[in-house]
Structure formats: C-alpha cells, structure tokens
Amino acid sequence: MTQKSHPISFRLDVDLQSTVEKWLKQHPGFSMSRLANLAIRGYVSKDQILEAVETTYASKKEVKSSLSKLMKKHKKTLNELK
Questions:
Q1: Which of 24, 32, 33, 57 is the most buried (most CB within 10 A)?
Q2: Alpha-carbon torsion 40, 45, 43, 5, what sign?
C-alpha cells in the first residue's frame, strides 16, 4: 500500500511578506519555492537548542477581568457568530 503525498503550503507572516518580495526582486534567479527550500534545509540541518522560559499564572480574579474585557471588546463579533 502506498502512502499519498500531500503538497505542503504555508503563509508568510505579514511583516515578512514585503521583505521576501523585495529580496526576490533583487535576486531574480531565485523563486519563492527555491528560497523556502534553502531556508528550511538550513534550519532543519542544524541542531536547535530550546531554552526554558519562565511561566507565570494568572489569579482567578485576573482571568475573570481579562475575559470580561475581551467579551466587551468583541461583543459584536461574538453575537454575529451565534
């Protein structure tokens, strides 16, 4: 039984889009696909060191306050989803 291969697609972060487009214009020999392959190959071929981060927890009061603010700020959108 053969396994189906699915095409990989991704979207650039908004702040990265214009930088990549500018770079590609300056380097007409490269396509977006080629640039992505080189970048990903370079990243995954090197060992990545993950560093621990400090975690903080909110109190119940802070959580309730944040949720209340969120609900007020996005009330119209939330109502549209009903």
A1: 24
A2: positive
Please give the pLDDT value at position 1.
Answer: 54
Tell me: the pLDDT tens digits for 67-81? 999 889 888 888 888
Domain spans in the chain, listed from the N-terminal domain onward? 14-47+58-81
Reference 12, options 4, 20, 2; nearest CA is 20
- The structure tokens listed for 31 are 């396509």
| Rounded-to-integer distance, Cα 44 and Cα 22, Å | 25
63-69 contact pairs (CB < 8 A, 24+): none
pTM of the model: 0.50
- Cα angle 14-15-16, degrees, rounded to a multiple of 5: 90
Q: Helix count (H) and strand count (E) of the chain?
A: 4, 0
